[in-house]
Structure formats: structure tokens, C-alpha cells
Amino acid sequence: MDKRLERILPRVQKPARYVGGEYNAVMKDRGEVDTRIAFCFPDTYEIGMSNLGMRILYGVMNNMDGVWCERVFAPWGDMEQEMRRAGMPLFALESGDPITDFDIVAFSVGYEMAFPSILNMLDLAGIPIRSAERTELTPLVIAGGTAMYNAEPIADFIDLVSLGEGEEITVELVELHRQARREGWSKGELLRRAARLPGVYVPSLYEVTYNDDGTVREITPRDGAPRVVTKRIIRDMDKSYFPVKTIVPSTEIVQDRIMLELFRGCIRGCRFCQAGYVYRPVRNRSWDLCAQYGVEACNDSGYQEVTLSSLSTSDYPPLTELCDELEEFCTQRHVNLSLPSLRADNFSMNLMQRLARGRKTGLTFAPEAGTQRLRDVINKNVTLDELLRSCHTAFAGGYNAVKLYFMLGLPTETDEDVLGIADIAGRVMHEWRQAAPNKNRGVRITVSTSWFVPKPHTAFQWEPQITREEYERRVKLLREAINTKTVTYNWHDSATSVIEAVLARGDRKLCKVLEAVWRKGATLDAWEEYFSFDRWQEAFAECGVDPAFYANRRRAKDEIMPWSMISSGVTEAYLWREYERSQAALTTPDCRTHCNGCGANLLVGGKCDV
Amino acid sequence: MSKLRLLFVKEAQASYISHLDLMRTFQRSFPRTELEIRHTQGYHPHPIMSIVLPLPVGQSSDCELLDFEVTQDADGSGIAERLNTGMPIGLRVLECYPAVRPIRELVYLRADLELEYDGGVPDGAVDRLRELFARPALVIQKRTKRKDLADVDIAPMIRRIDLGSGEGVIRADVTVQAQNPGLNPQLLGKAVETYLPELTPDFIRVRRRAVLDDEERDFR
Fold it and tell me: Which one of B75, B100, B125 terminates a domain?
């Protein structure tokens, strides 16, 4: 082990996250590989190791001959300080080597608040943060992940973006980079060739001009780059790689269990949900294959918990078959199955009872909005009756805790909608009184609200975020309306959501803001411990950028969105139609009931697997 | 039902695995064997498994012990090999056998200490340390479980100590009391810092070599 690291570790919190060596971490001989990849997650080990995409692509890249893909995570503040003091560059967990000289530095970016951490990790690695300052072929800095459906706020820092699911395109990119090195291409040549690969967006090949009012005037591709880059997907989930032999961290992580991915995409079409749009279309993995992967993954890792993972697991058609198939194994091996979230409309108590194996903790539902009108606006097709019926069944079955998630600041929200949330909590409590077999144990009802952030590639991409004052007023309104002790109300701190709203729909003018805020010390801004609203405000002021332009402005129908060179497969015309329906509080049926013609079906050759 | 004991090595990267994480790592490895760990009865059953003298994070050891109970009758044969197929780097089970001797018979701990001096070992340092550790009392400040400082005399807890020096390093072969109360060998460095601050090493490396009974024979 590196001597400097050995000296540092006794002084930092949770040193196990900086040493690697976990079971199933891939070790290769440096002499036998020609491509070194630093797979970076711009957040801590505990968060990054909980990311299934990271585990899939780690396996995919390490299955390539001559390629060694290693993991890199953002150090916590204490570790960063020690590393900088010791002059120790950011290193890869498997080999302990500095990533400065690696061939490819790849970031998995799932959320906007991780942007400052990308800059910080590059800097810690001794790599110039701006793409233009990196003139050599190596290291090539690339990025992918959900936040890259609008990569404009970090367009100046990354060389190229891989859009959509990475299983195939990553392999193609690694091969292209290998060819470039072998044949001695310039970096410019590599980027031009990469831009011809479907699903690759090279920001430097697009010139963006602006109108006087700050909106985008024109986006012009050059050197043969396509006008629109469409995301990549895996057509057949049964043929796609699943990490059966996966790294088992030696220290506790956030999702410390097997994540069994049942399907991709979502049939629902909630209008606020970016994942619901950008992961389309729905593609199921066969239940017998899921069962086999689940058993093999448990046997190899020793985990005793499996999450049945997807955007909406109760919508997996063969969910009962899968659970039946796994039941014997789970009983014999004391393995628990868990569901990430529940829909109140098709929630099956019978299934829950079986999954929970006698342990009745809490249930979580996400009605998202307080009135039926507003739930129709956002197309969250769950009714109050369905929710109350589900709660009734749960209470009757012995559950005595329910969590309810809502958003404040949804488009068209009125005070009546806000107060509707308190009303729902009251009704849920009433159901408990009616249904609970044993009232002595009491009931815990938790209401949580977050602040709606309009996201690109959704039906609400044209919508403003409400102002901070207005959000705080609505929180106060709700807080005062919830006055029973049994209902606990938690609300999300407002400042991060403002910045998230700015970055989510930002353009390239935000690159200088990001650099400024990072130079002022922003690193792990997804963490309350490190986030500073003042720092962001200073950076906006210094750069002459008005955050309200991005967060609180209503866009016109014909405005060119900064991310309009990116396509998730869902057409903008469809999004606009959904937006108009939302304004009329008209719902749209789910994809299984009726195809609504969003356009994503073309990605799989015309017909979705719903 | 059987009570079994594991003897295992914890070194390199694995020396940074904390006590609780180590318990989790072992729990996950048992499904590789046919053994079924006994669980406590109750609302939240947990496995009956305990690490005998938890090793401070960062130290290495050749002689860690883990006691556990299984529902079957078993003598532990073949278990070490199977457990080792699923371990992180630096964790290696040497033996699995019936836990016969009671833990209270574990009296001493033998460890190697390396005191590193980046600028070379100061002249006469070894002799001065010998003299230091021969004193009848060595009072140092130690953080208690309640997080405040307390004065502790560690001299009575040191059974023997042999010192030698190499390139930039002083090596100590120490035998200290293992429990009731036990002495963390790292604290010998604290004694140097307290009494001979000019000889404070830049870094101290600790490796447990053996756990011993009251006659200084290997405890198994």
C-alpha cells in the first residue's frame, strides 16, 4: 500500500472506503492491459457503490480484453484535505495508481448537484478541468448518466457525452480510443470520429449563439456532427449483461443488497418525472432469468436481501411468478425481498405480507399532490380512494407506520392543493382508527414534501419553479394545517432545490459559474454539510448570471431549449401535448392501456414490450 | 448445535475494515458453508457471533479469533477453505475448530511495533526507549469511552518488551496484557510522546503476532 496513504488513513473517517480490495474487485496485471479506465462517480463511495449502472458498466468494461476499468470516488472533506496536504493525487481503488495518466476518465453523473464534484475530482487528479486545455488524446474525459440529458452546464469541462444506456456504446468508445492511440490520431480527429457514433454528443462540435434576452438563438453542429443525438438503449433485456458476480463492499453502503433489475422504462407517464420519460420504452427482463440472477447473486455475494428494482416494480407483469419462484430459496437462505416503492393503486397486501416475512415496518406511498385535480395535472393516476383502501388493508394487516411523499410547487398548485395534503394525512389517520386491530401501539404517519424542480425532457420543461419565498409560504401553510401529534411533517430544505432548478435547465453560460463556485470551495454539494447557498449566489453575481432566468422563467413553446440537440426518443411534440393536457388537468392513460405515441417505440423498431 | 472458533489473519487493506463491518463481512461469508449460524430468539433475531478482542482499525493481525454458534453438530473441518473463497483482500481464515477453551484464559497479546522515523532513528534512541519502558510507572492520557481524558498507568500492563533498530525504524517485540484491562500496543507510542517528545516517531505500525494464555503459550 502507498506509504502516504498509510499515514493518512488513521486520521480520516471510514478509511475502508479508500483502500479497495473488496471481494470481486477486478485486479489485472498492468503489463497485460493497454487501456486504463478511471470510472469516476462524483460522490462518495457509499453512494457510488450503490449505483447499479456503475456496477453494470464496471463489469462490461472489465470483460473487454486488455482493458482495466477501476473505480474512483470523491473523497470526503477530511480525506481531500489530507490528500492535498500530502500532495497525493486522486487514485483508483483497484491499483492505487494516480488516474492522471489513465487513457479514459469516465464520469457517471446521475444528478446536477454532483457537477462541482466533477471539477474537483479532475483537479485532485491533476487533470486540467477545461476540455480545451487538454490537447492530448489521453486522458479523454467522458460522461454519461441521467443528468447528461442536459450536459450544457458542464459542456466546457468534458470531451464527450455518452447518452442513454451504456452497455454497447461504452465498448464502442473504448475501441475507438484504442484505435486512435494505435493510429496516432489527434484529439480533434478522435472527437470528430466519436461524434459519428450513435449516442455520442461532443459539446465542442456544437456552436451555440444567444439572443439578446439570453435565450438560445441557434445551435450549429460542425465537422459532421449530427443535428440531434439520440440516446442509446439495450433492446433485449434478456441479452444484456447483469452483474451476477459483483463487488461486495467491506464497509456499509447505502444500498447494501443485491439490486435485481426487473425492467427498464416505466409505463406511467407522470409528467414531472424525468426518469419516466428518458428511460422509455419499457423493456422487461424475463422473470425466470431474473430469478436465476437473484439466486446466483445471493450465492456469490452472501447478501441476504434483494431489492426488486425498477422505476415502478408493482407494474412488472410477472411479479407474482418471480416471487413464487424465489420463495423456496428465500425461505431456506433467510433472504428478504424488498420493493423500492409502491403504487397505491395496484399494491397487493398479499404480496407485501410474503415479502416482509413477518416484519411489519412501514409502508411508503407517493401520492405527490394533495388534490385529485393536481394529481391529474401531473398525471399521477392514483386516486384518494385507492390510497385509503391500500392504507386500510395495511393497517388491518398490522402495519402501524405510513410515509406519504408529496411535492410542493407543482404547476397550477393553489393553496387548496397544499391544504389537501393535510387533509389526506387526516384521512389516513381515520383509516387507521377504523382498521387497526390493536390501537394501543399507536400509529406514525409521516408526510414529507420536496420542492418541485422542473426537468428537461419532461412535459414540465417549459414551467417555472415557484420562488423561494412562495415555497416557504406554502411550507408554512401546510405546517400550520397539520396539527395532530401522530402526523410528522418533514420538508426539504429549499436552497439546494433552487440551484438544482438552475442547473437542470441551464445552458453553457453556467460553465463559468460552475468553475467560479468550485474555485470558491464547492465540492460535494449534494451534501448539506458542504452545500453553501451564499457561495452560489456570489458565483452568480461575479459571472453576471441571473439564476431566476433559469429557475423561475416560463419558456415559450417555440424557445430553443439549450438541450435540444439531445433526444431521449420521446418527441418534443409529445411533451408539448402532455404539457397542454396538464394545463387542462386531463390525464393520459399508461402505456399498457393505450399507446400514446410518444415516439420512444421507434427505438425498439416500432412496438414496445408493455 | 456446536460452538466453533475461527482463527484468521487481518492485514493490508482489510486492516481498515471496522469491527461492525467485519462482522457483516463474516455473516455474508457463512452461506458459502453448509453451516447455519444460530440466531438469538426474539423480535429482531441476530446471529450469535463475536470477535474476541476487536482489533483497532489500521492494525494488522495474524491471530484474530471469532466465536460463533451453529445449529448443526460440526467440528469445523473444511470450513476455512470455503470461507476463503469469498473474502476481501487481506482477510484469510487459517483454521476453524471447536471452541473449547474459555476466552478468560486468553491473558496476553504479543505484537510487533514499528516506530518509523523519516529522518532516520535518532542517536541513542533505542537505549533511551529501553530505559523508558523499564520505569515502574508510565502514566499517559487516554480517551475513555465517555470521550474524556483519563490518566492511565500502562507500565503494569507491559509484560515484556524487546527493542531493536533498523533503517529509519525501531522495532519492538512486545507482550502486553490482553484483557481486563487490555493494552493497545499503539499506546506505547503515546508513552514515548509523553515522556520523550523528541523521540516521537512519525508513524507507528502495529501487527498482532499471537494471543497467549497465562503461561505465554498460544491460546487457541
Answer: B100
Residue A394: partners with Cβ closer than 8 Å, 6 or more residues away = A349, A352, A363, A402
pLDDT digits (tens, 9 = 90+) for A192-225: 999 999 999 999 999 999 999 999 999 999 999 9
Q: How far apart are CA A268 and CA A379, in angstroms?
A: 8
Per-residue H/E/C for A286-307: CHHHHHHHHHHHHHHHCCCEEE
- Tell me the β-bridge partners of A508: none
The answer on B94 and B161 residing in a single domain is no
Number of domains in chain B: 2
Task: Indicate yes or no: CB of A298 within 8 angstroms of CB of B18.
Answer: no
Of residues A14, A25, A248, nearest to B28 (C-beta) = A248
Report whether A178 contacts A201 (CB < 8 A).
no
Residues B207 and B119 in one domain: yes
A299/B86 Cβ within 8 A = no
For B149-176, how does the pLDDT look when each residue is reduced to its tens digit (9 = 90+)? 899 999 999 999 999 999 999 999 999 9
Interface subset of B 70-109, CB within 8 angstroms of A: 86-90
CB B155 within 8 A of CB B134: no
Nearest to B17 among A251, A302, A303 (CB): A251
Q: Is residue B217 part of a domain?
A: no
Residues B96, B115, single domain; the answer is no
**Measured between alpha carbons, how far apart are the two ends of chain A, in Å?**
51
Confidence of residue B41 (pLDDT cuts 50, 70, 90): confident
Of B12, B18, B29, the CB nearest to A21: B12
Q: For A585-596, what is the mean pLDDT?
A: 95
In this structure, the answer to whether residues B129 and B95 fall within a common structural domain is no
| pLDDT at position A46 over 80 | yes
Using a CB-CB distance cutoff of 8 angstroms, which residues of chain A are in contact with residue B87? 23
Whether pLDDT at A285 is above 90: yes
B220 within some domain? no
In the block, residue with C-alpha cell 496484557: B177
Residues B117, B207, single domain; the answer is yes
Measured between CA atoms, how close is A475 to chain B, in angstroms? 37
Asked whether residue B218 is assigned to any structural domain, the reply reads no
- Which residue has better confidence, B146 or B203? B203
Residues B64 and B141 in one domain: no
Residue among A9, A21, A300 minimizing CB distance to B88: A21
User: How confident is the model at residue A360, as a pLDDT?
Assistant: 64
The string of DSSP codes covering A161-198 is EE-B--TTHHHHHHHHHHHHHHHT--HHHHHHHHTTST
pLDDT over 90 (residue A364): no
Question: pLDDT at position A347, please?
Answer: 67
Residue A177 distance to chain B (closest CA, Å) = 32
Nearest CA in chain B to A303: B28
CATH of the domain at B89: 3.30.70.580
Where are the strands (E) in A521-591, listed by range? Answer: 566-567
Q: Is there a single domain that holds both residue B25 and residue B84?
A: yes
Sole residue written with cell 470526503: A76
Pairing of strands A263-264, A283-284: antiparallel
Q: Which residues of A touch B25 (CB under 8 A)?
A: 248, 250
**Which of B81, B100, B119 delimits the end of a domain?**
B100
Distance CA B64, CA B76 (A): 16
Residue B144, domain CATH:
3.30.70
* Each residue's pLDDT tens digit, A47-100: 999 999 999 999 999 999 999 999 999 999 999 999 999 999 999 999 999 999
Which residues form the domain of B74?
2-100
| Residue range A503-538, pLDDT digits in tens | 999 999 999 999 999 999 999 999 999 999 999 999
Q: Are B125 and B65 within one domain?
A: no
* Chain A with chain B: Cβ pairs closer than 8 A: 69
